[in-house]
Amino acid sequence: MTVYAAPGTEGALATFRPRYDHWIGGEYVPPANGQYFENPSPVNGRTFTEVARGDADDIDAALDAAHGAAPAWGRTSVTERAIILNKIADRMEEHLEELAVAETWENGKPVRETLNADMPLAIDHFRYFAGAIRAQEGSISEIDGDTIAYHFHEPLGVVGQIIPWNFPILMAVWKLAPALAAGNAVVLKPAEQTPTSILYLMELIADLLPPGVVNVVNGFGAEAGKPLASSPRIRKIAFTGETTTGRLIMQYASQNIIPVTLELGGKSPNLFFSDVAAAHDEFYDKALEGFTMFALNQGEVCTCPSRALIQSDIYRDFLADAVARTEAVKQGNPLDTDTMIGAQASNDQLEKILSYFDIGKAEGAKVLTGGHRAELEGDLAGGYYVTPTIFEGKNEMRIFQEEIFGPVVAVTEFADFDDAIKIANDTLYGLGAGVWTRSGADAYRAGRAIEAGRVWTNNYHAYPAAAAFGGYKGSGVGRENHKMMLDHYQQTKNLLVSYAPGKQGFF
Amino acid sequence: MGAPPARVALTDDAAELLVRLRAKHGELMFHQSGGCCDGSSPMCYPDGDFITGDADIHLGDLSVVAGEDPFTVPVWMSRNQFEYWRHTHLTIDVVPGRGAGFSVEAPEGVRFLIRSRLFTDEEWELLR
């Protein structure tokens, strides 16, 4: 067990500046309007730094820097870009613990996750795209003996990226790595709940990237996000968030005729078939952990397995074991490596979760465990903590249909395979799903029948690079985490070349 | 038969905030969001900034009485989302908080929040 010192106290691995400006052109630049906003840590609810409150002028300055850097960056060889991405990964690895502590302080998530998931995945993501861009090839079509179509990949130029607060560094890297590998310059807006950890990273890798290739402007969505998303000076916008803002960003993009990629969340079903309980063995234990994955990252994951569907004949016993497993989740200081669940990222997030406890109970769902705010003591007293919660109810209830984004799972039973698929697909979303069974055939058929972009089969919440991630239905457009994402950040240039000496014959 | 009950309402705190936001941004609208991060939250925009269409339902207009200058704020929701929400009455409240998409109240350090209750049997009869 290790308890890391909190930033700002003696012995802390991560040290934040008292104030953060924008990161534009490879250096800190104060906001044009001179305004800053406070950034509290969810761990204790207290402000630990203040952050530039950007607006359209700062976005313009960042776009100027990006446009200045994009042509030269786009002309670098893929070898050079891959070397830089690998160097970034190496630098992050050297500072892994420090970044993990910074991220935990920023977001409230337990340090065991930032140490073992967020940071290693982010590091590997740079390495994956360093390799992918080296291996990428154009194509040639031989139209006829004298006519050849050559296809080249070209960068889009300057792109905009709007990052969510649930994995501030990892989600930024998911978008940055492919964009940079493909040769684009970026203007990135972090979430206003988590504005500093990405700046912490930028500072750490400042000497590795040419100035202006990555620019970070903080601020509120209405003031900084909108001028970025609606700017005619970006060639693409990528967004992770919710549906109304996703639609709004598409509307802005339509005015500028630029592509969008959107990741808009879900209400992921986690299916447990009867044979899971055929033996109380290692696999059964793994399945119970799979159920409890709804509490990972405090449930603040777009793919949170927030609907558990359990086959009727094992329903009572499996659920009893699942409740016991959930009650064993250790809540406490996020900087303690033994802590399994930390703080919700913000006060309004906490309030929203509590409002869903009300509507869940009003609709007649039964609370099997949790269902309330967790009041922690001492230094953590002001933090935003929720006890992991299991509701039992029916799929048409709102707690089964809406993304609560907290450590809350809604459980119901199904009779047979067809019933399971029907309930699983009765949702507006289709981002993630889980299937647990000892039958390879059932696993395959269920995985293909569920309308979701990612079906974890006998595992959950793994996010390795090279496994495509993205949504069906209302969950968005595009895929991340895979080399196909390079396409989202590239233009196709076709040279159609005639080697024939004779004329075409029209004139 | 009486008139169907309103589907949406506003707390006093939220009404006060709307008065201030309108002074700054002009006429306003709400669109109820779904999905992740700041999803399931009511998003407040300058009226017309978010383009509504056949994919949306107009849930009602919130009346804000502010001295000599009463005004209304329309509330919208995606039609497919409404299918799962139709049996609940929605009250827009406000809590201290940080950010939510492009919603205009976020810079004030507060966040609109939906509080829900089930319609009573009598109300539901009138709505059907």
Summary tags:
heterodimer, A: 507 residues, alpha/beta, seven-stranded mixed sheet, six-stranded mixed sheet, 15 helices, 23 strands, globular, B: 128 residues, four-stranded mixed sheet, three-stranded mixed sheet, 3 helices, 22% helix
Describe the structure.
The complex is a heterodimer of chains A (507) and B (128). Chain A is an alpha/beta fold and 507 residues long. Chain A is built from 15 helices and 23 strands. Chain A has helices at residues 56-75, 78-94, 96-107, 111-135, 168-181, 197-204, 221-229, 243-256, 282-292, 312-327, 347-362, 398-401, 417-425, 440-449, 485-488, and strands at 19-20, 22-24, 27-29, 36-40, 47-52, 139-144, 147-155, 158-162, 185-189, 214-216, 237-240, 260-263, 269-272, 307-311, 366-369, 389-392, 408-414, 429-430, 432-436, 454-457, 472-473, 476-477, 490-498. In chain A, the strands form six sheets. A seven-stranded mixed β-sheet of chain A has the order 15-16-17-14-13-19-20, with helices on both faces. In chain A, helix 5 links the parallel strand 8 and strand 9 (185-189). In chain A, helix 1 packs parallel to helix 7 and helix 2 packs antiparallel against helix 4. Chain A is globular, with a radius of gyration of 24 Å. The relative contact order of chain A is 0.14. Chain B has 128 residues and is α/β, with parallel strands linked by helices. Helices cover 22% and strands 38% of the residues of chain B. Chain B has three helices and seven strands. In chain B, the strands form two sheets. A four-stranded mixed β-sheet of chain B has the order 3-2-5-4. In chain B, strand 4 (56-64) and strand 5 (71-78) form a beta hairpin. Chain B is globular. The mean pLDDT of chain B is 93. At the A-B interface, helix 7, helix 8 and helix 11 of A face helix 2, strand 6 and strand 7 of B.
